[in-house]
Amino acid sequence: MIPVGELVPLLPAGTAVLAGPTSGTADHVRGIVGPPEQVGRAINPGDGIVALLTPVDRFDARFDVLLRRAAAAGVPALLVGVGDVGRASPSVGPGTAALAERLGVGIIVTPDPWAASVRVHELLGSGDAPAARAALAAARIGLDAGPALDEVFTRLASELGHPVRFLDASGRPLRGDGVAPDTAALLARTLGTSDPVWATDADGETVVAVPVPTGIGPRAWLAVGLTVPLPAERATVAAALQVAAVAVGHRLVLTRLDDERDARYRMAMLDDLRAADGAPAPPLVQRTLAAGWELDAWHIGIRLVARQPVDAVALRREVETAFGAHDLPVVVVEQADGWALWTSVVDEPDRVTVAGVAAAVRSAQNTLRSAVDTNAGVGSVHAGPAGLVRTLGEAGDAARLAAGRPESGWFVHVDRLGLAQLLLAWTQTDTFLPAAEQLLAPLERGGGVLRATLAAYLDAESSVAETAAVLGVHRNTVWDRIARIERLIGVDLKDPETRLALHLATRALGAAD
Question: What is the mean pLDDT of the chain?
Fold first, then answer.
């Protein structure tokens, strides 16, 4: 037995309660042709909801007699066809309305009493027939709809009369509304089933969710929320979603294949750019332009390294969305352990702009935490194709350095560390020699005397007297040169880590000369 009030929202558009209560219950419906007086004589006890299949012209005394006979037979509601419900007449007078309320018989008007009675019959029954029709309709949608998932979802929602939700494996919304936390947790731990999963939240919404079979990575879910979860309605929705899930899974597989092909193309193009050593051939330049990469610009490289195994292809759009949410346009290239990214501008950015980029990267990293934890590195600003390769290399090294810095939120920006500290992190990478050259370049003035003095000073374990003896100069001269060195390259030679980094740099550059 189902309350009449729960049936009304599920009936055809234009159906409404005109008078009387809808708290009565029913388990079947009977349709009767004829005017009210004829319907009244045909009513029998136990008829359930009675549908007047002949439209009613007016609610007069004859209709009041019908109400009394319906109440005597235990009928909870009359389903009445009056044409367009929105028109001014016929209308229920105050006497008829009061009588319906006193007798406990609801008056429900509908534009099409036959269709409404069939729908009531389906809702009160097992749901097998409407479920079969819904499954067939879902199959037709899967065959006829285009490749875009949105078209499938829109047409399926129209067929079911409920919005369709698309959820990831953990129950997070990918399209449409989300679900209650308890429901999401249930979906996240439900594995190895192709059957519908049902959950009712604290607000009384019942969600039916069906797994989407893809055969590639974590699965997704199709779901619909029901506020009046009648058995027939549940069966109808579940049958349609199970059929639609196959069509959605097929489209996801095709989309995944396209995404993987595009990812391999981007990765190969970036590898070719690195191998070109700053001088890409015209065909490679044309490929990068076709991909939307601006090589002749100023670049800031970004590297995100996942802290756990990750499907970089599947999460690419999450990365793009996270950076887009913080107004940072980036190129994203999948890598085996995460993503290489960069942002490009035509004019050289100033310090404030670069700091803003670093702040946006940190914010995007935090936004991504709901999907994946990462170590993030940001390189310095460099220009041109060679600069792009260099800043990405710096960003990669910074991300590796970030892996040991939980206090910084697993985030390192090269410009915030200082080259002396970075040299220690970069001694085993290709970034070391260019960084060492950049750091010591100001000491090359005057024939390289300052660089030679620094090398001798570090070899002498910071002994001014020994350095003076090695160079054949006065100790005051050494003191003066050391002060100039600290000022020119912005270091403190009293710091042992700085001395170690500079010692490695002078030795490496000395061997390279």
Answer: 87
Asked if the model's pLDDT at residue 85 lies above 50, the reply is no
Tell me which amino acid residue 73 is: A
Q: Please report, for the chain, how many H helices and E strands are present, in that order.
A: 20, 17
- Taking the C-alpha atoms of residue 294 and residue 280, their distance in angstroms, rounded to an integer, is 13
C-beta separation of 499 from 423 below 8 A: no
One-letter amino acid identity for 412? V
Write the single-letter amino acid at 85.
Answer: V
Residue 71, pLDDT > 90, answer yes
Q: Please state, as a whole number, how many other Cβ atoms lie within 10 Å of the Cβ of residue 415.
A: 18
Cα(135)–Cα(397) distance, integer angstroms: 54
Assess contact for 11 and 114: CB atoms under 8 A: no
Q: How far apart are CA 156 and CA 430, in angstroms?
A: 55
CA quadruple 268, 270, 274, 280: dihedral positive or negative? positive
The residues facing 341 across adjacent strands are 302, 332
Mean per-residue pLDDT, 321-337:
95
Is 452 in contact with 434 (CB distance < 8 Å)? Answer: no
DSSP 470-483: HHTS-HHHHHHHHH
CB distance 502 to 491 below 8 Å:
yes
Residue type, 384: G
Paired tokens of 326: 């913080």
- Secondary structure letter of residue 26 according to DSSP: E
Q: Has residue 25 got a pLDDT over 80?
A: yes
Cα dist. 244→130, 137, 195, 250, 254 in Å? 16, 9, 13, 10, 16
Q: Is 291 exposed, middle or buried (0-12, 13-18, 19+ CB in 10 A)?
A: middle
What's the pTM value of the predicted model, to 2 decimals? 0.57
Closest among 160, 167, 260 to 218, alpha carbons compared? 167
In this structure, are residues 246 and 142 in contact, taking their beta carbons and an 8 Å threshold? Answer: yes
DSSP line for 61-101: HHHHHHHHHHHHTT--EEEEE-S-TTSS-S---HHHHHHHH
Q: What's phi and psi for 502, nearest 5 deg? A: -70, -35
Q: Using N-to-C axis directions, what is the helix angle for 432-440 and 496-512, rounded to 10°?
A: 100
Residue 403 phi, psi dihedral angles, 5° rounding? -60, -25
Q: Which two tokens stand for residue 368?
A: 């991504």
DSSP 461: T
